[in-house]
Amino acid sequence: MTGPDKPKRGIRRRVAILIMFATGTIASLGIIVGYWSGFQLLGQTMERDYTMMARLLAASMTRMIDEEINDLEVFVSSPMWQAAVREKNLQHGALEARERERYFMTIEKGWSENDPIIQEYLVNPLSLRLRQLVGAESTIKEIFLTDRFGGVVGCSGKTSDFYQADEEWWQWAFGGGEGAVFVGEVEFDESSRAWALPFAVPMKDGTGEVIGVCKAIVDMKTFWDTLESFTIGETGHAVLVNEDGYILFHPEIKPLSVRLTDEKEFAQVRKRPNRWTLIRHSPVYTGTVLGIFSEIHHPVFIKTGQHWLISLIQDKDEAFGPFLELMGQMVLVTVLMVALMALTGIVFAGRFVRPIDRLSEAAGHIARGDWEYRVDVKTGDELEQLADTLNAMAQYLKTTTVSIDTLREAQERFRIVARSTSDLIWEWDIENGTLQWFGDIDARLGYGAGEFPRTIQAWEESVHPDDRDSVLAALNHHLKDREPYQREYRILKKDGSVAYWMVSGIAEWDKEGRAYKMIGAVNDVTGRKRSEANLLKLSQSFLMLGPDYARNIQSLTVVCGEILEGAYAIYKRLDGDGILRSVGRWRTPEDYGTEHKPDGHICHDVIKRGSEGGIYYIADLPGTPYAQTDPHVARYGVRTYIGYPVHCLGQTIGCLCIFYQDNRTVNADDRRILGIFAAAIGIEEERRHAEKELKEAYENLKTVQAQLIQSEKMAGIGQLSAGVAHEINNPTGFVMSNLETLQGYAQKLFETFDEFEAFFNASLPQDPEKARILRDHLEVIKKNNTFDYIRQDIPSLIEECLDGADRIKGIVSNLRSFAHTDTGDKCEIDLNEELEKSLNLVWNELKYKCEVTKEYDGEMPRILASPGQLDQVFVNILINAVQAIPERGRVHIRTYKKSGYVYAEISDTGGGIPEEIRARIFEPFFTTKEVGKGTGLGLSIAYGIITNHNGTLEVESKVGEGTTFRIGLPISMT
User: Are strands 309-315 and 863-865 parallel, antiparallel or unpaired?
Assistant: First the structure.
């Protein structure tokens, strides 16, 4: 028995040793290789997930920069902005280059807040609009415009300089007339006390020519909020750095104050983007951290040479701590397994070779990480127990290892990130045709939970038929030529409605160049498309504005209501009489009109609180006090209200409001659009106010001009009258003197003739016949020469000539008085005497048509007045009275005193003045006379003269009976 037993024992020993060695080696290598593969897989998965998150953050930053640029480009297309810039271009373009340079330098030297020059630029309509824009746009801290020469046109606040053409941003944005968008370096804005990013966009006209440049300072907090809310674990966060490695954003560090790491290490980071990098020399972190970097590829950054990098930073110990713990457990398990396998091989080698093979196979599965594999050995002894132990060990490894759990946690974090962003993340398994979505794809497309198929075919069928071919062609082009894949297309929802998607993605290729997987993101841009359509409609509404401000206000109200999709819209203005008037309407009920007692109405409260600024949003109106105080709430079923105060010349004068008959949430775009329309209506109100003032000024100017013309005319007539009076006075003087001398000569001649006749009669011969003949001859001579008639007529002729010359003398005296009407010098006068002088001046007009009656007060006090100007008033009224009498009539003049005034009434029996034109007779150039017979200035000048004497000029008239003008003048001296 001894001999035969040895081989058995030898075989058993060799088998046991072989089993022990083979099992131990295979188990150890399998476990090591399995765990090493799991470690690598987990590291690659985390690197891929973190890279994707960094790329998503970079894409989000790119979109925000695009939004800011798009907003500025919309603003600079405003007709008001372009009109202001064109005006400055014309003004400065009219100067020669050297003269313009000297002009700019003069303004530059005096550019201070107290200087009147800068005040002109700070309060012009464009600057006031820019200031309102800064208030409405919380992201913009400062904004200003320059003309094509670099001079400031308007600014929301005082800029550092007036002349901007020597700045790099201006030269880039103007670009010699071609222009390009400029984004500058992050800087600290002193005026807003905030870190900001400067943007500059060219202003182009309809032909594409650059006519000016707009610069805006945008608050960096707009970009930082997205990064600040992003965290991974306890130490993971997002950091923004520039191309030199200086930190632009860190949750706890001031921007541009420190580098993320030293130059050498940062250079290595730039060489291998989108890969894990160990950062060991960072002044920010005490230990070693892991970083994933993704560059922001914005077109403007590429042109200007800027490079921003998004980095996801996490402490190395936190990221790889579970792997270190896993390695310790792996070593311990391996040692235990080798020991167990050795014992098992020694005891059971000879009997259980076959089960050991199965156990070895099981160990291989477990080493490869197949924790679900089970060993089924039924020997009833230790081998079966070992099989159970392996099964228990696999279960133990499954429950204690952290590799898969960590992977799942990373995947779960990825899902959380996908849910936290507005984008959808998708992963396409190209070989299997499955399409996995991270995000609620079912809700996005209007399906029930899990209803939308997760296949590439289902996605293709949901693409709009008109876009499907181009989308699939672009996708195949990417898979074949590896060109960047980004496409905007329409997607069909379950109900047939359309959404707009912006899709980007990148494939993964194997060593043979075959694409086996593709991952990407979907950004639903339906809202952006709606905003673009609204902006287009808004821009078109501004372009359609005309000269009629009332029609413009109505048009703006209608377009605002259409864009914001309210039940109805209305613009109400609170006028100075306290009445709340409905000026602009859209879909308003017919009985929704003007409120004479607006207390308690929503719009009235908004206007009263208008100085607070901003939008007023009131939800669930039936539950507010307005349900009782504002009758329109219950009458029209209003549930949601948004209103924006309208400002004019620094005062709140009205409110633009939208009413909804359902509960409505107002987003930032709605607030911005309502604010823009309210500002536009405010500009129209300012234009209405300016046009009103301009019209009043024009009317006043016409009156003054008419008076000046008449004054000049009367001054000329006065000078002519003075000359005529002077020239007539001299011949009149010697004519009167000669007539008086002639009268004396004639008298003496007649006396001489009488004496001669007496002498002749006394000297007749005694002969009666001869005496008769001589006497008859004398009578014949007298008769032939009509001596008796001449003797009787000469005195009357001379008397009439003297009377006419005396009248000429009186007229000359009156002309001399009239010649001094332009001086306006006041002196003490007798009103009765002035009326008499005026009558003498126009007597030639009166005597043929009128009977003049007078009723003078003989005790009239003297007054202080300009006699020439009063004569002008009386002459105008008297001439009008004569012209009002058709054939024959009467003019009655009456004077009296009453209550500290002296009065002169001039009445005529003419045709009278109709009531409809009676209020206009004192207007300059208003006349009812035929062309060439009146200028329409007489009564307006008369009214002005009496007003300047602090007097009154009244008119009473009845058609067919006549007219009475009543002139009242204060008694200045008693």
Answer: unpaired
